[in-house]
Design a protein that fits this description.
The chain is α/β, with parallel strands linked by helices and 351 residues long. It has 13 helices and 8 strands. The chain has an 8-stranded mixed sheet. It is elongated and about 95 Å long.
Length: 351
């Protein structure tokens, strides 16, 4: 097995190689070579010795990373199953870390060191953090900006969270609002990864809000292609950080961004981070809040149904006493139903 000569590092190489071998079903020698190359490269990053390929395909990777992928607007990468979308995420993160040492990267790509930080301390890619929810992502943005750094976001498997079929959902609305004000916090990205173009929400897919890039695997190579970059494309190859190819971290959109946005309206940029941190706990969507909202909706629907019955009985010239006895309600409930009906008529007249 390939070793480093340092007992502590050698132990990490063996541990990481075993994880790679079990995940990909490759030889232990091949897994060990990948593990050692990754750990050596991480040490090179920390010591300022790492470098990027000058070209990959027909264009410079630096151009794609900072001018196309990680801009201050959403970028959508989509491609069919098995084309290498998670591979592309890992490839992009590694090179962007080298190119932009003043950025922090928030991702749900399942790098092995996220699950084994104590066993793999020398494999941890600097400034790369696991996020599994919008709450964690926003807290990361706050932390980065307070430290004078730029938050960069890249999220895999977004089909499972927001898609074109759920564009009216709370989750989709929160993302739509986030993409509208993220530039105020100098967010790079987010890069959002989808399996199919039809799953991408229309407000992102139509090009006004985001850039859409296609990933294709052809003749043993992975290509990133986009209409606005022709005739240039990018070949995704070279070293990538090891990750679990058969597992993933689901991302949960658990923040009501409409509530948060309202709390930030009119707030100066200097105070925006404090206000967002202060308002975030109330904006988190918990099971209790969801259940409460459902109960309120059910109660409102039941009330409207009852008021409809009352008005129908009055139209049939039943007395208030008869209505009370039939429905088992108080005189006050009948008066509320009549007031609401009258208020509705007044509003129509005003219109």
């Amino acid at each position: 097995m390939t070793e480093d000569g340092n007992p502590a590092v050698d132990q990490q190489i063996r541990f990481l190689a075993q994880l790679i071998r079990e995940d990909l079903n490759v030889s232990l020698q091949k897994a060990a070579e990948w593990a050692k190359s990754h750990i050596d490269y991480v040490q090179g990053i920390k010591q300022g010795r790492a470098y990027l390929e000058s070209e990959s395909g027909k264009t410079n990777p630096k151009y794609w990373l900072n001018s196309i992928l990680f801009t201050m607007r959403p970028t959508i990468i989509y491609g069919a199953q098995g084309q290498g979308k998670t591979y592309t995420c890992a490839w992009s993160i590694l090179r962007a870390v080298v190119l932009n040492p003043d950025w922090d990267f928030y991702t749900n790509v399942p790098f092995f060191w996220f699950d084994y930080p104590e066993q793999l301390p020398d494999a941890i890619l600097p400034n790369v953090y696991l996020v599994r929810s919008m709450e964690e992502m926003l807290r990361g943005i706050i932390r980065s900006r307070r430290n004078g750094r730029y938050p960069a976001i890249i999220l895999d498997e977004m089909d499972a969270e927001i898609d074109s079929y759920s564009w009216q959902s709370e989750e989709s609305r929160s993302w739509r609002i986030f993409t509208q004000f993220q530039r105020h916090f100098y967010v790079k990205g987010p890069i959002l990864v989808y399996h199919y173009a039809k799953h991408i929400p229309a407000y992102l897919r139509n090009g006004g809000m985001a850039r859409v890039i296609f990933l294709e695997y052809h003749e043993g190579k992975r290509y990133l292609l986009a209409e606005f970059t022709r005739p240039w494309d990018l070949i995704i190859d070279g070293l990538i950080p090891p990750y679990a190819s058969h597992g993933s971290y689901p991302f949960e959109t658990n923040v009501d961004m409409r509530y948060l946005y309202r709390r930030l309206e009119g707030v100066s940029p200097l105070k925006a981070l404090d206000r967002m941190e202060e308002a975030l706990p109330e904006a988190i969507i918990t099971d209790e809040k969801v259940e409460k909202k459902f109960r309120e909706i059910e109660e409102r629907n039941a009330q409207q149904e009852l008021y409809g019955k009352i008005r129908m009985m009055i139209a049939e010239r039943m007395t208030h006493r008869e209505i009370q006895d039939r429905l088992g309600i108080s005189p006050n409930t009948i008066q509320k139903a009549l007031r609401e009906y009258q208020d509705g008529d007044d509003n129509k007249d005003n219109d």
